[in-house]
Design goal:
The chain folds into two domains: 3-190 and 285-298, Spore Coat Polysaccharide Biosynthesis Protein SpsA, Chain A (Alpha-Beta Complex), CATH 3.90.550; 201-275, no CATH class. The longest helix has 28 residues, at 248-275. 42% of the residues lie in helices and 18% in strands. It has 300 residues and is an alpha/beta fold. It has an eight-stranded mixed sheet, with helices on both faces. It has a two-stranded antiparallel ribbon with strand order 5-11. The protein has helices spanning 13-26, 43-50, 64-74, 93-100, 146-152, 163-173, 201-216, 220-242, 248-275; strands spanning 3-9, 31-36, 55-59, 79-83, 87-89, 106-108, 126-129, 132-135, 141-145, 178-180, 186-188, 293-298. The chain is globular and about 55 Å long.
């Protein structure tokens, strides 16, 4: 089994160096693809000097899903893993992927230190949505069968946040299997994919509405989920105002951001659903463009 590891990075030279050190030590046989950009902290020179990366792809777009797809474009392995540059792989990480992928289409593991060397038996978050069992995965510690990523056309580049959650919905729609690998341990900073972008409520709700409507259509259960999320945030905001932590103008501004995000995401999702009526639901996926890479250094 050949494994390619895609490491997206942006202005994190020191953290990336630690990640590359861990990969070189604990996964010496894997193909390492760093997707950088556009960084301004000397990341390019560090990667060139480090010598452990097989490919360095420079991109101009800051969107994480563009970086992920650019990495897939250059990967040659039959299994493609995605690693957050803040994480450090454990010594059993690569072997855990190989073991899990024998009978599964994807594998994910814990991003925390194992307790007393015992296999972590936690499980990823799962939810049933519109009768579909969706298993979410950590976007900074996950591996997929390369053919599955091809069939799903990679990540949706419309999304600035929530790209991994969107992929989880489409992965579930294809009835693919996600294996929890307790030994696939990566330690370090927490990774995130579905939350806010620097406190940007507009994009949080735009992403949420887009993912739900694009993958499930306009239905009561989707409207209920969107309303529940917005209502919870609204009540939290009211408490902050009454506690004196925030002013009424902040609450009104936040409400406007949430509303415009929901409307914009829903509108764009309806258009996307019409553009791609196939089960993969990915009109702005990997095949939609070929100009992601600005410069490519290939040392294979």
């Amino acid at each position: 089994m050949d494994i390619s590891v895609v490491v997206p990075t942006l202005n994190a030279r020191e953290e990336l160096a630690g990640c590359l050190d861990a990969l070189a030590e604990h996964a010496p046989g894997v193909e390492v693809i760093v997707v950088n950009g556009p960084s301004s902290d000397g990341t390019t020179g560090m990667v060139q000097e480090h010598g452990s990366a097989d490919v360095l792809v420079e991109v101009a777009d800051r969107t994480i899903n563009v970086a992920r797809n650019a990495g897939i474009d250059r990967a040659s392995g039959d299994v493609i893993a995605f690693v957050d540059h803040r994480l450090r792989m454990s010594e059993r990480w690569a072997r855990a992927i190989e073991s899990a992928m024998v009978g599964a289409d994807g594998a994910t593991g814990p991003t925390g230190a194992p307790q007393d060397g015992v296999e972590n038996d936690l499980s990823p978050e799962s939810r049933t949505i519109a009768g579909r069992e969706v298993t979410y995965f950590d976007p900074g510690n996950v591996a997929f069968d390369q053919q599955v990523l091809d069939e799903l056309d990679g990540f949706d580049e419309y999304l600035e946040v929530g790209g991994a959650r969107d992929l989880a919905h489409r992965f579930a729609a294809g009835e693919y299997t996600m294996e929890w690998a307790g030994d696939m341990v990566a330690t370090g900073g927490l990774t995130a994919d579905g939350g806010e972008r620097n406190g940007d409520r507009h994009w949080k709700y735009r992403s949420l509405a887009y993912r739900m409507v694009k993958n499930y259509g306009v239905r009561p259960s989707v409207a209920w989920r969107l309303s529940a999320h917005a209502g919870s945030d609204a009540l939290s905001g009211v408490r902050s105002v009454f506690d004196g932590d925030r002013g009424p103008s902040w609450w009104l501004g936040t409400g406007r951001d949430v509303l415009t995000g929901l409307v914009g995401g829903t509108k764009d999702a309806v258009i996307a659903r019409r553009r791609d009526r196939s089960p993969r639901r990915n009109p702005r996926g990997r095949s939609s463009r070929a100009d992601r890479a600005v410069t490519v250094y290939d040392w294979r």
